[in-house]
Amino acid sequence: MQLKNFKTEIGDTTFCLSVDGSLNSDDAFEIVTDDFMKLYIKSHKLVVLNIYNSQLNHTYNYRNKKETIFEYIAENLIKIDPTRALFLQENQEGYFKHPIAQVNDFAIKKKCSFLVSSYNGLKGPKGDNKELIKGMDYLLENSKIPTILIKEKSLRAFKPNSQLKWLFVFDRFYFNCHFILSKFMELVSSGSDYVYGLTLLPTWVKFDDIKKKFEDEMINNKIKNYKYETIDYINNPSLIIVDKINEDQIPFDYVVIYSNPDKYKTEKQNGDIAKIITKSTCNVCFINGV
After folding, report:
1. CA 118 centroid distance within chain
2. Is the model's pLDDT at 6 over the cut of 80?
3. Tell me, what's the pLDDT at 193?
4. 177-207 pLDDT, tens digit each
5. pTM higher than 0.85
6. Is the dihedral of CA 251, 257, 263, 268 positive or negative?
7. Does pLDDT of 1 surpass 70?
8. Roughly how many angstroms between the first and final C-alpha of the chain, as a whole number?
C-alpha cells in the first residue's frame, strides 16, 4: 500500500503507529487495531510506520529485521479496510535523528491526530540498541500532538466485555481540562465506554469549576457511563493517580493526562508524569502543554 493512495479527509482521526519488531510493538499494533480501528468507525485511519537502517538490518535478530516486520504487519492489515490502513517502511540511513524523533516529525508533517508507540521504559531496556522506545523521553519533551503509550496487554484478560475504561486526570486549571478533553474524547465510545474524571486539588482550594466542564463534555458527547471525583492532596499527586489506576477493581485501559514538557526536562524520572507512566498498569495518553 502506498501513501499516495491514502487520503485523509477533514474529520478523519488518523493514528500514526510506530513499530520495531519487538513484542511490545506487536502488542501496540494489536491493541490500537482492536480498540480504535473497528470496522464501524469509518473515520478512523491508521498509518503503521517502521524506521529501519539498511546498513544494520542484517545484524538484527529475526524479529527486528524489516522483512519480518513487513510480513507480520502485512498479514494483519489484510483484516482492515486497505482504504483506511497502510504500512510504510522508511530508511533512516544518512538521517541522524533517533527513529522516534523521525516518527514524531512524520506524524506532524502528515497532520496525524495521534502518535502511538509501544512502551518498555522511558529509555528502553538496557543493552538493547534496536528498541524504538529508547526515545520515549524524547516524546515527553518534544511531542506536539496527542501521544498514546501502549504498555503490556496481560491485564486486558480481566476485562468483562469490550468496554474501554478511561481515567481523565485534571488539575485545578480550566485550560488544561479543556485541552485534554478536546483532544481525547473523540476516542471514547458513547455507547459502551466508561469515563472516570478525577481532579486533584490542593487542600487550600475550596472551589471546583472543572466538574461542570467535565459533566457538560459527557452530555455533549452522549456518554452514558461516567463518574467524577475530586481528591484533596498536599503532595505526591502521582502516587494518588497510580493508586487509583492500579487498585481499581476493574483495571483502567487508558489514563489521559496533561503534561508540562519544561517541567519534565527539569525533573525527568523524578517528576509526576514519569512516575505515572512507569508505575501504572494501563496505557497512558498525554499531550504536552503549548
Report:
1. 8
2. no
3. 92
4. 888 999 999 999 888 899 999 998 876 666 6
5. yes
6. positive
7. no
8. 35
Question: Looking at residue 206, what is its pLDDT?
Answer: 67
CA dihedral (251, 257, 259, 263) positive or negative: negative
Grid cell for residue 125: 531496556
Those residues with Cβ within 8 angstroms of residue 197's Cβ, 6 or more apart along the chain or in another chain: 168, 170, 210, 211, 214, 226, 227, 228, 229
Q: CB-hemisphere CA count at 13 Å for 63?
A: 10
Q: How far apart are CA 33 and CA 145, in angstroms?
A: 20
Using an 8 Å Cβ cutoff, are 120 and 155 in contact? Answer: no
Beta-sheet pairing, 165-170 with 194-202:
parallel
CA distance 183 to 137: 21
Query: Which pLDDT value is given to residue 89?
Result: 87
Q: How far apart are CA 234 and CA 204, in angstroms?
A: 9
**Structural domains of the chain sorted by starting position, each given as residue range(s) with its CATH number in brackets:** 3-152 (3.40.50.620), 155-288 (3.40.50.620)
Q: What is the pLDDT at residue 157?
A: 56
**Residue 139: pLDDT over 50:** yes
Query: Cell 477533514 identifies what position?
Result: 10
Distance from chain centroid for Cα 117:
7
Residue with cell 499531550: 287
pLDDT over 80 (residue 215): yes
Distance CA 81, CA 44 (A): 11
Q: Are strands 165-170 and 147-150 parallel, antiparallel or unpaired?
A: unpaired
